[in-house]
Write a structure and sequence with these properties.
single chain; alpha/beta; Signal recognition particle alu RNA binding heterodimer, srp9/1; 2,3-Dihydroxybiphenyl 1,2-Dioxygenase, domain 1; 2 domains; 4-stranded mixed β-sheet; 31% strand; globular; Glyas_Bleomycin-R_OHBP_Dase; VOC_core; Glyoxalase_6
Length: 125
């Protein structure tokens, strides 16, 4: 091998039952724009650029269980989202369609569940 080729992370793809519904949630939550859309796939990205989020409809999608439990569907990843006011951001996320996870492992982080069942964390910088 002559050298390392260039790699650039363009997007993180979240599987779900309905790509358009989940993209709408993250569009509301983050204030991002839809950059591309197909019947079973949507890309949203910050207007300032950077890594985007894509959503892909999967017919056999099963939402993950958090915290993980034995033989249940495990989460494969979660998003960490920086906020400037934890209580205000949590209220906004819930109003946008998220739910608060029953278990909150840290006082300075809020674990929420998106409408497709993916956990995500809100945290202060």
């Amino acid at each position: 091998m002559a050298g390392k080729p260039w790699f650039g992370l363009a997007t993180v793809v979240l599987d779900c039952a309905d790509a358009h519904a989940l993209a709408g949630f993250y569009q509301r939550l983050l204030g991002w724009e839809v950059k591309a859309s197909e019947p079973d796939w949507v890309l949203v990205r910050c207007p300032d650029g950077g890594t985007g989020l894509s959503f892909q409809s999967e017919p056999g999608y099963r939402p993950p269980i958090w915290p993980e439990q034995g033989e249940e569907q495990q989460k494969m990843l979660h998003l960490d989202i920086r906020v400037d006011d934890l209580a205000e951001a949590e209220a906004y996320a819930v109003a946008a369609g998220a739910s608060r996870a029953e278990i909150q492992p840290q006082d300075d982080v809020r674990v929420l569940i998106d409408p497709a069942g993916h956990p995500f964390c809100l945290f202060l910088p």
